[in-house]
Structure formats: C-alpha cells, structure tokens
C-alpha cells in the first residue's frame, strides 16, 4: 500500500478517542475541514470506562476549579445526548439514574461525612442517608451498610455507544477518519504543520490538536517544553450481566471507598453491570491480573453480596490519561499551530461535551472560551522551567 499523503485540512486531530472525536465533530460543524488520525477511531479508554457522570460523588479536596468544569459539562449532557442521537439515530445509553455512595464501616462513614461537608461547602446537592434508608433504595446492598450519600444528579452513559455515535456523527459531518498511526509531529519554521504516519505518509493542516489520551506525551517531534505532562494510570474493569430473573439488581450507580480503594457498580438498562476500577501507576501495562479482578470482586461483594451469582462476561484494563493536577489540558501550546485536548484522567466521559464546545470555539475563532481558561497547558510552563535540566 502506498503511504497516504494529504494536504489541506484546516484541522488535524491526532487521536480518535471520544475527546478527539468530539473535537473533530464540533470543528466540522463550524465549517472547518477536519481529519482525525487514529488506528481505531472510537477505541481507546472509552472501551473500558464505566461512564459515570459523577461530578458530585467524585469530588476531591483541592479540585474545586475542576469541579466547575465538570458541572458545566454535566449540565450540557442532556442537550448533547439529544443532539448526538438526532444526528446519528444511535442510542448512547444515557441514564438519569443518580448515584448512591455508601459506607461499610466507621472509617468509610467518616470519609463520606467529610465528602458530604465538602459537597455542601461547594453548594452541591447530596443527601445523607442512614444504612436502612440506603437499603430501602437498593435492597441488594449488604445489611452492614452504615450510611450513604444520595446524589440524584450524578448519572451515567454507555461510553462504547458514545464512541460509536461520535464516529457516525463525525462521518456525517464530513470528518475524514484516517486509520493509521501518527508517528511524528512535523514542525516547520517553529510552527506545527502536520504529522508523519508510520507508513511514511504525511498529513498537513493549519491547526493540529493532540488528543491521544495517555499516549499524548509520546508523540515524537513535539518539543520537550511543549510535550504534555500526561501519564497512563491503569484501571481494571469487570463486566457482568444481570439475568432478567434478577432484575432490577440495582437501580442506580452504587459506589464506595473500601480499604482506601474506590469501587463502583454501574447498572445499565440493557442488563450489563460494570464494576470498576483499580487505579495503578504501572506505565503502559494493560494486563488484567488475578489480583485486580479479585480485589474488585471482593470489594463489590462486600457492598452487594448477590454479585457473585451473576455471570462474569468481560475483564479489561485501560489507561486513564493522568495529569499532574488531575485536570485536562485544553487549548493552545507555545508551539504555534499545536493545541492540546488531553489529560482528562478520571473525567474523560463526563468532560466530553464541554471539551467539544471549547475546542470547537478555539479552532474556529482562535479564542479559548473563558470557562476553560484555568485549564490551558500554560499552567505547567513554570513548573517545567523550574525543573532541573
Ligand atoms: N471515573 C472513574 C474512574 O476513573 O475510575
């Protein structure tokens, strides 16, 4: 096969996961000729993620700025889903089911009480429930549950369906999906001008968006001081299926921190039950381990003992694109022509609508909307300058 060479896109997106695809879709809707390069568009971390839209239950100390972006994206979800479903005719499994975060012992309960206080200080809606109230809502919960937080605004979507719909939306909007590996960024006279593919082909564009998830820090040719500080954080996830005779097994997402590890159970309308997730700093390793599966099942079983009756249908590991402050990098770099949309860490699915909107606006107008101003790559410039050479 001859190397593929193409010139003349307005926008070239490197990476066809949900962040790259939503960026491309929004750019194309604004009239920009857009190409996405990825060996498997619609693949990536979305094939593993559970799809919780958990702005409130995944709140962490020190992440109040990120909370603002997470909430902005959560508010957009209903309209975003309606638009995407209208554009594609594909259902994306959005379920406004709410979330229940529960405590199994007094340590968990203290942790959850602190989370509740933080949520209230941030003006978020969540309600403290006794263990009995939790079990009234979700009868499959273990009798030992000591209390919980009911958060009716934290919903879910099926990330695999979301990715598939974004592929269709891009195709229908005229985005060129080029199946290949971008091996090296081309820089001409201090400006990013395209990429060289692994088959030797070349693509050029006026603007390039690096949206390659955990791989974003590895594109050759990107100057060291521009390379995003993104690292892979492994998550192992299980999928089970709830036979009709057991339904409804759970009616909402149930989660907890068990012995310091997060575990969550996300029940889909189609009977799939997703159990996640480990969080491991092991580089590029995506092995599913006996230990990972054991810990997830052990913790999930403590929460919902009946889970051991369900067929286990899939085990898989993916890589979250972690950033130094757990927030995404959105916007222009110091290399003219090169933008970033990466580093979404635990919130890639949640942040998909707002990422599409701000990146689309940036690519069409040259101005990053104010709501993303705190998330530009420039916030790491000083840290880099201070690092010893
Ligand atoms: N947001 C869920 C996770 O990263 O595991």
Automatic annotation (TrEMBL):
It comes from Streptomyces purpureus. One of its GO terms (molecular function) is glycine oxidase activity. One of its GO terms (biological process) is thiamine biosynthetic process. Keywords: Oxidoreductase, Thiamine biosynthesis. Coiled coil: none annotated. This is glycine oxidase. Its EC number is 1.4.3.19. Pathway: Cofactor biosynthesis; thiamine diphosphate biosynthesis. It catalyses: glycine + O2 + H2O = glyoxylate + H2O2 + NH4(+). The gene is thiO. It comes from the Bacteria. Residues 10-360 form the FAD dependent oxidoreductase domain. It holds the Pfam family DAO. GO terms for cellular component: cytoplasm. The keyword Coiled coil does not apply.
